[in-house]
Fold:
Amino acid sequence: MKVALLGCGAVGSEVVRLLHEQADDLAARIGAPVELVGIAVRRPNRDRGFDPSLFTTDALSLIKRDDVDVVIELVGGIEPARTWLVEALRAGKSVITGNKALLAEDGGALHDAANEGGADLYYEASVAGAIPLLRPLRESLHGDRITQVTGIVNGTTNFILSAMDATGAGFSEALEEATALGYAEADPTADVEGFDAAAKAAILASLAFHTRVRAEDVYREGITEVTAADVASAKAMGCVIKLLCIASRTDGGVSVRVHPAMIPRTHPLASVGDAFNAVFVRAEAAGQLMFYGPGAGGAPTASAVLGDLVAVARNRLAGVRSASESVYADLPVRPMGDVSTRYHISLDVADKAGVLAGVAGVFAKHGVSIATVNQSGRGDDAVLVIVTHAATDKDLSATVAELRTLDVVRSIASVLRVERE
Structure:
């Protein structure tokens, strides 16, 4: 079973190491030995500790080799990865990828190419690292009806929010610590602004609801606006703040969103700390399931890649392929404005009579019911914290927009969603 590898960074290097160290076991599990025939990289002369004759800068020529059975792509990005993988799949070569950005933007093109070439497309490594998650969604739970997938799928943001909760630090201080420890990239934008989690949410929703969901369909907010005061308010409510991806089947469609939210400390996801990932799945027959483990890192992600390799190699030896993409449901993606949840709103207000009545009147006007109100401080430091009952996002947005026009509201310090389930 001959394998071409595209990319040899942290994950790719671990894949090469494991292919060598576990060669005998892999051959026994698959039923044939695995041979790495080439590695496409940008800098072939860099010393990586592997046979230098394996390296090439010509990925397309490597893919087109007649003897290549499986292509593993760990380069990332949209192009040229899309061109390479479509070429491989159309030629009937099985593909394993961890490219969440490409899958979320144009996974349909890859699945179409796989169908055209009669090839396998596996991507367990694209979401939640080593955690066995995608295959249970598309195979183990294929006979059930999944109603919701809620998860912490970005280790960087989870580390930052966990540090803020534990120490009371602000966002900038927690990000600095995450960077120093290697949990955050030099440019953390994709993580802290929610782009990484949104791509993973699209992949999860597509599998769970048999509907093609793209990254652009996912409502996205990052964590850069979460403050130490927000974290303290969450603690006072018995909650913790997490960046969640939430995909739900609702009203004849699906809603998919990524944003920071307060969840009770009794929630199964509340205790997920540091850079770990966890995904909570609700299904009609199976009930509640939780998948937990390291969501990133070279070795954990390489473990997911090798798991896919065993599966596709067995299929090739047997002359079969896995089930094709399941998108029969073709459900519409509901706009964020239709999503209903509870909210925590913090207002800087003038400390004078009638403020609460004026603010409450705006909530009532837009049909947003208030659950609790708490005022702290006096004078210029007066803060009004309101927690609502469930309301739609469009009604809450209209409420916030009108609150900004009130003379007694100096500023809206924060608006956070409160998820109880």
In short: The longest helix spans residues 298-318. The longest strand covers residues 239-250. The chain has 14 helices and 17 strands. The chain has three domains: 2-129+298-318, 134-294, 336-418.
